[in-house]
Amino acid sequence: MAMSTVLFDVQNNGYHGEHGATGHTGSHGSGYGGHGGVGGRGFDGEYGGNAGSIDLYIKASQDQSTIEASSTLGPASRRQASTAATTFQMGNPLSEIKLSSRGGDGGDGGRGGTGGDGSGGYPGQDATRYSSGTNGGPGGDGGDGGRGGDGGRGGDGGYIKIYHHQMDMDLLMLLKQRTSNTSGGIGGHGGPGGYGGSGGPGGPGGASYSWTEQSSYTDANGNTQYTTTYHSNPGGCSGPSGRSGNTGPGGSDALNGATATHTIHMTTINGGVNVYPTLYDLHLKSLRYVDTVGYQIIEPAADVVLWPTHQNCGGMPTPSHQYIRSYVQDNAWVTCPVPNRICLKQWIEPGQALEIERPILFHVSDINEPAKGPAFKTTGHMEHRALVDRVNQDFGRIRKEDTPFTIQYVVENSLIKGGTAITFMEESPMIFGLSNISALNVGVNGAPSRILFNKLNINFNTTGGSKRIDKDDIVLRNAYGKVYNDTAGGLHTDIPLLTSHDTQYFASTLKFVGGKVKPYTRVTATTSLFFGHVKDMLRPIMIQLRPFEVQLAQSYEISAEVDFLLIVNNRTEFDEVEAWKSIVTSLGSKLTVWNLSLYGDLGLGFLRKDGSSLLDDFRTKSIIYANNFYLKDERLDQSAVQYTQNRELFLAARDHGINTLVFGERHGFDLVSELQPFLHNGPVPILYKSRDHLLKTMERRLAPGSGSALANSADSPCDLCGAFLINGKLKWAVLHLKEKTICYFVSARQKFPDGMIYLESFQIIDEQLEKGLLVTIVDESFRSFVFAVTNTGKAQRKHKKYSSRQNYAPDLEAWVSVLKPLSSSEDPVTENVKEGWLTKKRNEGKGWHTRKFVKVDCGRKLLYIYGSESAAKPKKIIYLGRYTITHGNHFGDDVSHNELKFQIKTPHETVFFKASSEAEKDEWVQHILENLPATEAESMFHQQSVKMKELGLTEWLSQSEIYSRHASMIFSDSSPPSRLSVNLKSLSLSPPPVRPQKNFVPSQTTVSKISIEERFLFTKPTEKLLKKKATNLHKKLQARFPNQRNLVVYNFVPYNKKEKRGFFIRYIGDLHVHRSLDNTTTQMVHLEATSDQVHSEVYIKNHSTKYALLKSLDFVHKLHILNRELNESPELQDSYFTDFNSTLHLATIAIVSDLYDEQNHFRESTWKDGLDTQIIRSRLDKLDKLKSFNFVAWAHLTDPRERLNTATGDVLIEIGVHLLLMSQCFTSVWDKLLLRRRCTNVNKATKQVWNQIISEQIAKGTPKNRLTSQFNDAIKARMVEKRRVYENLQTSYEDSGFLVNKKNKTELKSKKKVLKSYCNPKGILAAHRNSALDTHLVITKDDYLSLAHQKPPRPVAVIEDRFVFSTDEDRLKSCDQIQIQELGCSAENVQTKRVNIDQGQLFPHQRTFLYPEPQPSPLVVSAPGDEPPKSGDAPTEGGSVVPPEAARSTEIDTTGDSPKPSEEVSVLPPSMEVGKVEA
Q1: Which pTM value belongs to this model?
Q2: Are the CB atoms for 841 and 758 separated by under 8 Å?
């Protein structure tokens, strides 16, 4: 039998009207100055055609096998009446009828005609000898454009009538619940007006006329002379052009056609006719559902009953003789057999809502294996359907409804809480809860009776250390201390009754015994939850497995020989730790471990019971941080470095000299972010007047701070403020008691004071005069400041304007009452005075001046400088409340007699002194330091933590006692060039002496602040301008201090007219300078590796890992390691040059890489910028250390030739080769051609220091440490040979920068690639390090704050000896605490909610399990990157789907209009309040 029609598309639409034509163009102007004509009107658009009517007749055939449909189309515009008929197969869900009787759209009106162009004006007459030329005539105007045509009216829609019998109401489903289209056509748009014509050009003016006339005359000599006179008449001007015509008006838009009616005519069984406006339609208003048992939880394999409520949202009743069946469609989780489809009530009136009389029953699919980890939980979907009988078609709105519901078991085990890492002295609690989340009691004593029990098994196949343990290697106990001997059989507990929404707890402990188990062995204990099947409740099935790992950890132990801290966690393995120990031992050191999982946190500053902390133990030492994913709550999705506090590693490096190698995942650790400056102790902003003020202080002065006056802005919070005459001038005064400073300003809005009065030691004198109170303040330097009240107009204006400020005090009485108790009633005692003659340098370093008589009064903290010994008045008085002493050529601009020089630095100036002898200098320095404590200043040229590290690793060699007693004070900013340290370990191969716990206590870190004010005459301050100033400041800092990494933060303040000051002076905002770790010193290294590689012994012992560890050490430590290797292999060996397994080779290239970092950053500035060769030479810190390092291997050799032929000499020559090659690669053509280039100065300084290295190291012991020219030639030849060998080696690597040419010679082809190989040596995996990273340089304040607080602050959670139980009470207390704090048990029920635990088999009789009895298995966890299960898919948390056996109903592919918004869901009765759903 042939397939019947599927689609019956009936259309009787009107035709679309034609668009109107464009109007004619207007006539052009004629003759001179003629105007153009008006354009013609556009033609109107054609009317749209009216649609014809449609009469549709639909009925079922007599045998009910087909559907007969016929249509009668009424006459429409340009179309005759017609008929059509077709048949559909009954029950075909694809059958469809479409009806349309829409009016045609009207045509758009035509554009108006273009106006005619005007003609040109008449020409002017030419000039003659007797008249001027005339002007040309005006051009004609252009014609206006024509009017646009009107749009055509839209055609009317035709009515549609659908005729059917009440017995065939279901046949209307073929219309798909659509209302047929009977709308009128859209009216046409009016045409646009025509364009105006162009105006004619003006007529040309007449031409000009010129002529000459000659005349004669007789001069004084009687001669005839001739003269010529030139004449001209001007021509006329061109006439004006005509104007262009106007655009014509647009046509009118037409009306839309009328919409016709759509009606359904139904012949009733009584013979009457009912007319309806629209078809019937259903939507899902609400629903309720529940499992058949009454748990109010939908379990796998459960039966569910569903009561949907449907509402007729159409315009006519639903079929009266056919049924509408409601059901849910079969899918992965739902099976609804055909017999379970429920019929709705017939003849549902429009707007009526009805719930089905009896529920729909559907079955949820079962799973065939237990959930591993979290309890099984997934989402099923109820795909709703409402199917009409006979026609076999469903409602589109219902089909779009999809109700999700949760599938889970009614009982579940919680996470197991306890210790994931314990030592031999500890026991790990293993505590978990069993919860009933249903509305019914469960257990064999529940109703219904359903079996429930838990088991705990130990897996004796272990990981991490030992491969397997015996049952005697562990002890299991319950919370009360009862020992279970049968550890192999595991533990179990029967749960006869677990009430609704209740939890019972399982508590046991595990302890390692015997001492045979290797450290870092991980034992897995697995709980198995058994529960009766929902269809056979006394047949237990395993529904959940929860694993719990316990690691045998090593406790933290510290000794003087330990230099490295290895931070591990509960995934660390025995071979992994042994590999690190092997590497550290090869470096001549030892390590200890800190287990994050054992102690619960890192907490470098946490004070342990012994009174020390990790910061104390490892100050100036190193940390190796294993950053793998560790186990927490059955998941491996958090990296170990997340245990650190915000910037904890950065602060350890900056403030305590602790270097760090992070080895492992990038997850959770970003070195760029870690290097952002962070001030844990609160920033102390030091205010500077300008950029030059800041740079000068950084270069040659001591930063302001405690012991000196501190600048504040005039509008900053203060203790007192007011306007007074100070020394006869009106000033705004501000008192800051905490800073002991009075700042005074010209303006009360000024950002930097005109002057400051320091109140450390002062006297106050108040006198009552006729004009008022007069107050005199005499500061520590005997400067007098006279305060008086004034009532001048200017003072009155300040009073009126600023009297609302906090702590405003306009009378001096208030100031006297505050200051007088702080003043000194008597002069400070003069004591510990030293005086004598010294040579003083004038103006902070501009040439030497004459000798001065100097007096230091330590009691008064004053330095007096006199012109002569007999002078009564000093030329200068300097207050030493805040000062420091530096030594030798500290600023790098002196060239001779540096051993005689010392400098006294204060916040306001630096005084340069030179003694007549070294002993005299020592005497001065010793007297000052012993009687007047100096300030430990932040180093500008060398990082403070590096100086701290040197003090921990070295001892100073000097000829005077003063240097050993006060080294931290004298050399706070610089190592003395002529008195460098020797590493303690380089003097002896025996273990080093115990280093002090705290060699250096850093002062509070400061932030430099500059408030920017400028004049703006015609513009306003912008953020772009402030950012530009911040960028320029950073460039200047980078040029002057190439060793530093500074971050400039700018804070723009929007312009406020009320805040203007002075003559157009505007406040833009503030610049803050934050200092991070230095560029030239490697203190933080990150070697990326996967978690598997972190645990791999082979990967750890790889030369790349060892190099990364070496690179993370400070330069002196690298020299020590090199020294050790050279001492063990003093003879020259060529293999070290290429052997990556050689510590000697790796140490050498690490040292060369450090020298590259120093060279690279000193060359970042293109121009000299204030750093000449001498200054650069004094700041090449690493070369300086290499020059003065004492290599033990050749200490007994005095002959330079013998030294050169040792391994030490060979390594030094190799380093020299690399320095020479670096200089060559850094130098560009411009550096050779131009003057004042930074690169040229660095090259010179490097060469000078290298020559000193040769003199100090190889030529040491020769006369004046000088080599003969012949020996120098030998060194050069050795360097040439070394370079040839190095170049040949580099050609074996890709992108090395060297190539072998056709003559088989090595050539330098790429300088950049050669330099890159120093940054990341060939053959070694690249690691990120702070000395070779580009970080944020200039950012806004908001960006800085977001970077500084990426990790929210949290309390340190370090706990020592968490699970050491000396008594059963300790064990019970710990278990109770975990049960309460981590599992949420109430304190009053902690004992009563704990279940009894047995060992061995649960029941002696035979048991049948749906699934096989589980065997303990290693932990199964989810790692980062696991995708969540998709909605409606099979379960992914521990089970696969049992395919439903019931047949699926026919799928119906329908389309329809978008559903209307659903109404609110009805509230279910309390007894059925399980599923409430909005449809």
Answers
A1: 0.78
A2: no
